[in-house]
Fold:
Amino acid sequence: MSKVMLITGGGRGIGAAVAKLAARRGYAVGVNYRSHADAAQAVVAEIQRGGGCAIAIQADVSQEDEVLRMFRTLDDRLGRIDALVNNAGILEKQMRVDDMSAERLLRVLSTNVIGAFLCAREAVRRMSTRHGGQGGAIVNVSSAAARLGSPNEYVDYAASKGALDTLTIGLSKEVAPEGIRVNGVRPGTIYTEMHASGGEPGRVDRLKSVIPLRRGGTVDEVAGAIMWLFSDEAGYTSGSFIDVSGGS
Ligand code: NDP
Structure:
């Protein structure tokens, strides 16, 4: 029986790259999306054309009832969960803190932190040997912003990713004795829609000069690091972070 991976925000960007790579490595894949059903269905179709197993599941991860429904769907359709990638995330427009509302911070926290918490909790309830599960692994997609703070641009987003990193550390220690590893990946500047929606046009190209490797990263470079954390080679790695940020 194939191992099962759920990827939140799996229809686009980094999440879609992880879904496709995981399918190539033999996982049956749950591709979660919030609003872009066509994108998620396209990922599923591509995986199925390659002989893999994938389903698309709609849910807004910031909503508890929707997360519970998503996991019930996964239970019914794929029967188990071995791997969770908490990838869904939002970045709002660049803004100095002077102009930032508390509502904006709450929106960002709702998806980037509460969403990851709710999905991790449902995964732990199924994976933990304490609940009769077989163990598993979770990877949280954080950001280099958690270390750098994103001054003058997105301090709200950076704060959300800092909280996600602390959740990763605490959760990893809590559930390691129950057979679950929890790690994080911190991408730097990656070519995806996120920069088109959150940053000014051409932002990635402008940033090249301050990235030590002098380029933006690709979704496949992030997906590779995420998949390593699920591999047997990473069996003794928990509560750790891989920076995929071009040396930033
Ligand atoms: P994209 O903007 O390309 O895609 C975001 C994905 O998240 C979409 O699939 C979207 O679904 C989904 N999503 C957003 N909110 C929710 C929600 N509430 N519930 C369910 N799904 C949701 O992002 P990236 O691929 O660039 O980013 C993926 C992750 O990587 C994020 O956590 C981001 O913070 C992190 N990251 C990205 C960096 C970059 O440079 N791109 C740098 C550092 C970190 P839908 O399309 O259906 O709305």
Remarks:
- The first strand starts at residue 4 and ends at 7.
